Amino acid sequence: MNRGVMGYCTACGAARGPLAAKSVSLAGQPSKIGGTVARVFGWIVLSVGWGVALLLFTFFFVLFGAAPVTWILSAPIALIATCVWLLSFMGGKSLAKSGAKEERTTQEQAIFALAQTRRGRLRAMDVSASLGMQVMDADTLLTDMAKKLPDHMAVDVDDQGELIYRFPRIDLEHRTRVVEAEVMASDAAAASRARVEDARKPRVDAADFADYVDEEAGREPAKQQHRR
Description:
- By secondary structure, the chain is mainly alpha-helical.
- The protein has three domains: 22-117; 119-166, Winged helix-like DNA-binding domain superfamily/Winged helix DNA-binding domain (Arc Repressor Mutant, subunit A, Orthogonal Bundle), CATH 1.10.10; 176-227, no CATH class.
- It has helices at residues 29-64, 68-117, 124-131, 135-148, 168-200, 206-216, 222-227; strands at residues 2-3, 6-8, 15-16, 121-122, 154-157, 163-166.
- The strands form two sheets. A three-stranded antiparallel β-sheet has the order 1-2-3, with no helix packed on it. A three-stranded antiparallel β-sheet has the order 4-6-5.
- A hairpin with a 5-residue loop joins β5 (154-157) and β6.
- The protein is rod-shaped and about 120 Å long.
């Protein structure tokens, strides 16, 4: 998401370069603006073209009446203006639709990234603050996503009656990582205790142990033999 000229990560809020990733606030905007410009241009051409055609028709109608020359000199202009308007309108509509789709896709990707940092649970307020949109718009977006992606999202209600949008797979991954971390910590603690206990055990010298065996067997210890 862009704030001024700086870009920020929607999920974690960290600063990013202007071109580091696709901006949520700018996604689809060029296409939507281009679509608006194309439609406006089409209406201008249609208005001017039909205006000129009407003036020519009136002028030649006064001179020649309803003769073919009147239609030949005015109708093509109106036809060309209509064709240009139709092409501009359809092209602008297609651009606007493409921009809206790109914007929606980018927003959905940002929401999934945000869910990764929130343990798979989001509220409309979280999305509103991260994506820079109204709370109602964020709630509508999340609701539409939950309907479109029932395998990836679920809707719960907390004790205060607030909707919580849950991402089961992300939630499961988080729980799995927590359990794995706890197991690793437990294993590390057990290994550390084992090392401490092992260090506290008295160590028996090999020579002393050999003398002990000799004494038990009724033989003279090796150390005494060596002294002689």
